[in-house]
Amino acid sequence: MSKSEKESLLGWLGRRSGRGDGETLARPTGGLVKGAKRQLLDEVADFIVDHELEVTPANLALALEAFSGSNPGLSRQIVARVQAGDSITQQWLDEATASAVKERNDTGIQLLMTRLEATLESFGRTSTAARSATARYGDELQRHVSDLQDGDDTGQIISSLAELAVAMLERTRKAEGEMRHSEDEAKALRRKLAEAQRDAEIDHLTGLPNRRAFEALLDTHYREAKAAIEPLSVAFCDIDLFKRINDTHGHDSGDRVIKEIAGALARISDDKCHVARHGGEEFVMLFRGLTMGEAKARLDEVREAMAGRNLVNRKTDQPFGQITFSGGVADVFGYADPRAALKAADEALYAAKEGGRNQIMLANK
Predict the structure, then answer these.
(1) For residue 27, which phi and psi values (nearest 5 degrees)?
(2) What CA–CA distance (Å, rounded) separates 30 from 26?
(3) Would you give the DSSP letter of residue 290?
């Protein structure tokens, strides 16, 4: 990041040279507004280009948040990383913002759950009030029936019964309307909650589960496989030379390659084989009931089929060349816990990369 870029970030944080931490920049007014907008857009563009980041809606939005001051936490992280001499990579940006995205998703889900609980509570109050009114109506009706049996002023009793029936009918209709409204609202909130939970666990480029969803699956299958004494293997896969694809053909083409690999891996998935996008061009897989060797054989089939395809850039009609991926596989029960197994699979993946790419390697226990 250039000096001017660092100063810009610091400036949007209210810390431009010569200002105290508590001071903020004055908002541009009048004719300065247009210039400030141009400057902001230039800073966003420079940030993306200078750090060779993907030109995606997500990256543009994050850069805008950082440079506009709407996400001071991200701004501080970027400044700290640059000042430490570290590069801003796509992987770092994804990891730096993953917790914030998760927090926003969790907050939205929590708000929906709170609204649903309030609606159900209102439904319960309406139901209780209706039961109470029904009980009172029954008591009153019983009293009038007793009076009829005693033969006291039959005409007046029948008139009172009619008034009581009309009042109860009105109260019942009102309660039915309130309960129907609460029930409809609860159904709508349940649908929204299910959609929010599903969206929070889906990678929108590939349609695959994301890292968050995979971690939940891993915990579940780990407990079940351990209890059933079944093999359990994990694998990391990474597209080879992906940056070259992006640089040569553009990020839209890079996204297409990611989706092609995702689709190929998804085709070997079933209720005991799960694939998720871990981030960037990396995927993670879980194989229930398969040993490391068996999982490796499954991945090798996909890898060889993918390497034999001839993908073409639809915009330029230029071939992509051979598209391959590398992978690493580990036996989950060969390590202290699933996280250690994931680390071992990741290390095996990088050994496959260093060993020439386009291969799957087993982790060393």
Answers:
(1) -70, 140
(2) 13
(3) -
pLDDT tens profile 129-140: 666 666 666 566
- Over 70: is that where the pLDDT of 222 sits? yes
Domain ranges of the chain: 3-88, 102-199, 211-362
Q: Pick 102-199's CATH classification: 1.20.58, 1.10.20, 1.10.287, 1.25.40.
A: 1.20.58
**pLDDT of residue 47 exceeding 80:** yes
Of the candidates 78, 88, 95, 57, the residue with the CA atom closest to the CA atom of residue 9: 78
Query: Cβ distance 274 to 208 under 8 Å?
Result: no
Categorise residue 231: left if φ over 0, alpha if ψ from -120 to 50, beta otherwise: beta
What number of residues does the chain have?
Answer: 365
Q: For residue 86, what pLDDT is reported?
A: 80
What are φ and ψ of residue 321, in 5° steps? 90, -175
- CATH class of the domain comprising 211-362: alpha beta
Using the 8-state DSSP alphabet, how is residue 273 labeled? E
The helix/strand/coil state of 275 is strand
Phi, psi dihedrals of residue 53, rounded to the nearest 5°: -90, 160
**Helices 57-68 and 90-150, interaxial angle, to 10°?**
90
Rounded-to-10 torsion of CA 92, 94, 96, 102:
-160
Residue (of 305, 303, 323, 304) closest to 313 by Cα position: 323
* 329: three-class secondary structure by DSSP: strand
Whether pTM exceeds 0.70: no
- Give me the pLDDT at residue 127, please: 65
Collapsing DSSP states into helix, strand and coil, what is residue 365? coil
pLDDT given for residue 8 in this prediction: 47
Instruction: Tell me if 88 sits within 8 A of 1, measured CB to CB.
Output: yes
Task: List CB contacts of 255: < 8 A, sequence separation 6 or more.
Answer: 56, 205
Burial class for 237, CB neighbours closer than 10 Å (0-12, 13-18, 19+): buried
DSSP 280: T
Residues above pLDDT 90, as percent of the chain: 32
Which residues are registered as beta bridge partners of 209?
Answer: 202
- Residue 21: Cβ-neighbour burial (10 angstroms; 0-12, 13-18, 19+): exposed
